[in-house]
Write a structure and sequence with these properties.
The protein is of the alpha+beta class. The protein has helices at about 1-15, 100-105, 110-120, 125-135, 140-145, and strands at about 25, 30-35, 45-50, 50-60, 60-65, 70-75, 80. The longest helix is centred in the first third of the chain and has 15 residues, at about 1-15.
Length: about 150
């Protein structure tokens, strides 16, 4: 019985990953599409939540994709299938703007954020805002790792 359950579990895991030709949707606010299937290296472009990409190849936890950017993206940044963003309950049509998408990604709506700021007028979000705007050049990061012999 245990052997049968193990086979069933392994089969589910193996068949759960997208395959060439499948569509994946970006589920994070933004993500880098890399030139090679590794976290540290040169970026081939960037994608935003809701962007849909076509899987061309799967290599472990990395997908070679094409769409708004072409290259390699890690599975943690995507959800399998096409996802349509909607501002109405149940997803029946409607339009959303980029601010609403970003706030929803943080678990806030404009109304919730406004109420939170009203209840906490002394909170300073300047540092959080600055950190969110910070970017690191992937080529510089790769050089740092190589030079420091980091693994």
């Amino acid at each position: 019985m245990r052997y049968a359950l193990l086979i069933l579990f392994v089969s589910a895991v193996v068949f759960a990953a997208p395959k060439a030709g499948d569509t994946v949707t970006i589920r994070v606010l933004s993500a880098k599409v890399m030139k090679t299937p590794k976290f540290i290296g040169s970026s081939a472009g960037s994608v935003s939540r809701g962007d849909q990409l076509t899987v061309k190849e799967v290599q472990g936890d990395w997908y070679r994709v094409e769409g708004t950017a072409a290259g390699w993206i890690h599975k943690t940044n995507v959800t399998e299938g096409k996802v349509t963003l909607s501002s109405t309950p149940g997803g029946q049509g409607g339009k959303v703007n980029q601010d609403e998408v970003e706030l929803a990604g943080r678990g806030f709506t404009p109304e919730v954020e406004k109420k939170y700021r009203e209840k906490n007028p002394n909170l300073d979000f300047a540092h959080v805002d600055a950190i969110e705007k910070t970017t690191i050049d992937p080529a510089e990061l790769e050089a740092f790792v190589t030079e420091g012999k980091l693994q």
